[in-house]
Amino acid sequence: MKRKICMSIIIAYLAFVPFCAFSQSIVDELVIADFNSGEKPNNIGGDFGTWDYDPNDETQSCIMEFSPVDSKVNDIGYSIQLNYDVQSPNPAFNGFWMKLEGIDLSPYNSLRFWVKGNSEGYFTSRFKVELKNTLGKRAVYFVKGVSDEWSEVVIDFKKTNAIKDWTRMSELTVVFSDLVSTYKEGIIYLDDISFLNIEENDEDIF
Ligand SMILES: [Ca+2]
C-alpha cells in the first residue's frame, strides 16, 4: 500500500513537469569590422593589419588584403584575406591584429565572426583567436572546423579566467602557428566581426 502511494506521487509529479526547450536571442550587438568600405579603419575607428613573429625569417609571413568575397550572399562588400605561411625550419607563427580602441565588453558575452578557407583547399582548419585588455591580460580561444564555405563562429569569450576586467579592451588577434595549423601555407578569409549579448531563454512547450 505504501509503495502504491509513492508511485502515485511520482506519476503525479511527472505529469506536471512541463517540457522545456532553450532558445537564444541576440539582445545587443557591437559591430567591430565588416570590412565593407574596403579600407581602414574598422567600424569602431581601430587600425588593423598583420604581424610576424620573426620578420627576418623569409620562410614565414602573413599578408593581408581586402577581398570582394564577402560573407553575405548578394552583399556588396569585402572581407579580409589572409595569406599566411608558417612552413619554416624555425618556430613559426604570425597572423592578424585589430585594435579594439578600449571598448567595454562588459555588456557582451559572445564574439562572432565568419570564416572560410580558399576554394582550392589550401588552408588550416584550425587557428587561435586572442583577446587582450589594456592591462596586458590575454585570453586564448581555439577555432576548429574551418571549411571552404563561410561558417559562423561564436565564442563564449567570458568562459576564461585569463581576463577578469573586460571594461577596457585593446586588441583582437588571430594566430597561425606551425604547431596548430593543419595546413601550413594557405589562405583564410575573415568577415563581420562583432560582439554580441546572447540571452538563453527557457520556453515551456506545455
Ligand atoms: Ca564584409
Q: Can you give the helix content as a percent range? A: under 10%
| Low-pLDDT residue intervals, each spanning 5 or more residues | 1-18
Mean pLDDT: 90
Question: What is the number of E strands?
Answer: 11
Which molecules are bound in this entry?
A: calcium ion
Could you say how many structural domains there are in total? 1
Instruction: Give the overall silhouette.
Output: globular
Look at the helices and sheets and give the structural class.
mainly beta
| Annotated CATH topology | Jelly Rolls
* Radius of gyration, whole Å: 22 Å
Number of helices: 1
| Name of the CATH class | Mainly Beta
CATH architecture label name: Sandwich
Q: What would you give as the CATH superfamily? A: Galactose-binding lectin
Distance from N terminus to C terminus (CA atoms, Å) equals 32 Å
Task: Give the H and E element order.
Answer: HEEEEEEEEEEE
Strand-residue proportion: over 45%
What does this structure look like?
7% of the residues lie in helices and 49% in strands. By secondary structure, it is mainly β. It has a single domain, classed as Jelly Rolls. 27% of the residues are buried. Residues 1-18 have low confidence and may be disordered. Residues 34-36, 70-71, 77-79, 191-192 line the site of calcium ion (CA).
Features:
206 residues; mainly beta; Jelly Rolls; six-stranded antiparallel β-sheet; five-stranded antiparallel β-sheet; 7% helix; binds calcium ion
Brief characterization of the structure:
The chain has a single domain, classed as Galactose-binding lectin (Jelly Rolls, Sandwich), CATH 2.60.120.
